[in-house]
Amino acid sequence: MKLNTLTTNSDQDFLPFALFAQGAILISFLCLSYFRQEMPSVLFYMSLGVATIVCFVVYKVFESRHLANSLLLLTLVAGFVYAILAVLDPLSLIWCLTALPILIGVCGYPGNLYLSASLFGIAALVLFQEASIDQSNTLSVSTTLQFLFMILVVTIIGFSANKFRLTYLVKIEKLSSLVIKMKTEDTLTGLKTRRYVESCLRDKFLRAEKLTNAFSVIIADIDNFRSINERYGHPAGDSVLGSVGALVKKTLDDDCVFGRWDGNTFIIIIPHSDAEATLLMAEVLREKISRLKPQTQGDTLTLSFSLGIASSAKCHDLDDLLAHAENSLYQAKNMGGNNVVMG
After folding, report:
1. pLDDT tens across 152-175, in order?
2. Is residue 237's pLDDT more than 50?
3. Strands in the chain per DSSP E
4. Is 57 domain-assigned?
């Protein structure tokens, strides 16, 4: 994953910090200017502070991250340009240096690169022009060069910190995705875990009670699976489970939820309660499993599936639904396996 693909999300994550940091900085500069009796600077920082508060209100009250981000970006750019063109005192130049890292974080790559270059060009043009017009000006050529050098240093530090932050976010996102995958996906079969399926079942049963939208459940079990483990070993059994899991995913629609229920038992949630359609799906799955001929240790294995079906329309709660499906599965097993029974 490239860093620039996270630009929008990272800007939104950076926004709360940027608003807080800019607000604290502006309060500090406002107080300092007030004690120094520099009223134009007081008005300047007060205006920026009001604009920052508006950004905060847009972000917090109206919950518009994008608009708040754009307003803060516009505020900082306008403040930087105005400080260079109109205020032009040492304190305002220091504020410009504090605004640069926030601009870099808020704008995002590659826009922050173009923006930094533009602001540097404006500062260099204006300051060198001021120094050449009035040699007695406090902002001499030497001071101008020092300020521009500080802009370069702060910009480099800002870009380095922003890149480190984005790299950290990428790592956090990858770790989060891995944790979610471990919680929801069975590594052996590629199907959903029992915990995930149970959560889906609870949600569906609640919706079914409110909307009278019934659904069906299929619990399927590989017949005589223990004999495969005993004769060929657990690696062969794991390979069979993986093959069956892949076939289940390939056979069923994406609307269905399918997972590994327990050991060599699988569970399938059908998003409707049409008995004929559900029975047909179960029969198709049973036939495809019987045609699956995995190879192990030079032998060709013959597999079969026993499936039990239950509908939420006939059950008063989730436990009752699962009990009906498991009872149907036991009946299919008692009939010799390789059968489908609807409860």
Report:
1. 999 999 999 989 988 888 898 888
2. yes
3. 216-222, 257-262, 265-270, 295-296, 299-300, 305-311, 340-342
4. yes
CB 278 within 8 A of CB 267: no
User: What CATH number did the domain enclosing 266 receive?
Assistant: 3.30.70.270
Find the domain containing 262 and state its range: 194-342
Q: What is the DSSP letter of 37?
A: T
Domain for residue 187, yes or no? no
Single out the residue of 331, 333, 234, 246 nearest to residue 288, CA to CA.
Answer: 246
What whole-number distance in Å separates Cα of residue 145 and Cα of residue 124? 8
Tell me, yes or no, whether 188 lies in a domain.
Answer: no
- Phi first, then psi: give them for residue 216, nearest 5 degrees: -120, 160
Please give the model's pTM, rounded to 2 decimal places: 0.62
Place of tokens 């032009």: 88
**What's the mean pLDDT when you consider all of the chain?**
89
| 106 within domain boundaries | yes
- Region for residue 254 given its phi and psi (left: phi exceeds 0; alpha: psi -120 to 50; beta: otherwise): alpha
**Four-residue CA torsion sign, 281, 283, 285, 288:** negative
